[in-house]
Write a structure and sequence with these properties.
Elements (H helix, E strand, L loop, with lengths): L1 E5 L2 H18 L4 E4 L6 H13 L8 E4 L1 E3 L10 H8 L11 E2 L8 H15 L4 E4 L21 E4 L2 H7 L12 E4 L2 H5 L3 E6 L5 H9 L17 E6 H9 L3
Parallel strand pairs: 1-10, 2-3, 2-6, 3-5, 6-9, 9-10
Antiparallel strand pairs: 4-8, 7-8
Helix pairs in contact: 1-2, 7-8
Bound molecules: 6-O-phosphono-beta-D-fructofuranose.
6-O-phosphono-beta-D-fructofuranose (F6P) binds next to helix 5.
Organism: Planococcus lenghuensis
Family: Belongs to the glucosamine/galactosamine-6-phosphate isomerase family. NagB subfamily.
Pfam families: Glucosamine_iso (PF01182)
Amino acid sequence: MKILNVANYEEMSSEAARLVEQEIQRRSNPVLGLATGSTPLGLYRELIEGFNSRGISYRNVRTVNLDEYRGLAKNHPNSYYQFMNKNLFHHLDIREENTYIPDGLARPVEAECRRYEALIDEIGPAHLQILGIGTNGHIGFNEPGTPEDSLTHCVSLAESTRKNNARFFDSPEQVPTHAITMGIASILKSDKIVLLASGTRKAQAVKTLLEGTIDTGFPASFLRKHPDVTLIADQEAFHLAKAEGK
Ligand SMILES: O=P(O)(O)OC[C@H]1O[C@](O)(CO)[C@@H](O)[C@@H]1O
């Protein structure tokens, strides 16, 4: 794993944007794997800036998102479909039909998971996948216990994840109990992975990622088996690992 230890959130975001833009400029039909959550918001602001002032076009870019809440319609304010439109897609020249996110309402859910995995294989896998990390080591919505060979599937969200994400909803009870997520194997299909971590809240997760064992108890640990992962983390996120000389 390559490690970029940066000063702060802004630097993490601009380093990540630099890697994404490099990928876009060197390919005729780039495929980006995208994430939600608060961590990539700064990256998305940088990409919008790159579109507005550095002339980076998304006309030929296709995107596949990691996950979507189960039971939320596309037009629900907390759906990841809305999140992506509001925080990125609506500010770029990307074509709507080139942006893919699981359908949180599709039934049966197993068919939607199979459709999404087939889509990843058909248009992708991603040339570059952006990831955040949960405090419990989840990537996408792959909670602890998820097997390494998992493909897109429906998950029951950990209470800690629902609690962490409650800040985006009017009340904690409104956080959906389930989600559709790319599996660990689906994520590892990507050519390159860029994992972002910022703030003291993520320090224990970064330490476990770098120093713990590779097993299902900490899903992000499987990233250590991938040949091209770059961790971009700021000083606060690194401080526990650093305290032990890492
Ligand atoms: O970036 P945040 O908001 O800390 O979330 C971390 C992770 O949790 C999720 O939002 C899912 O709960 C992921 O999409 C994200 O990578």
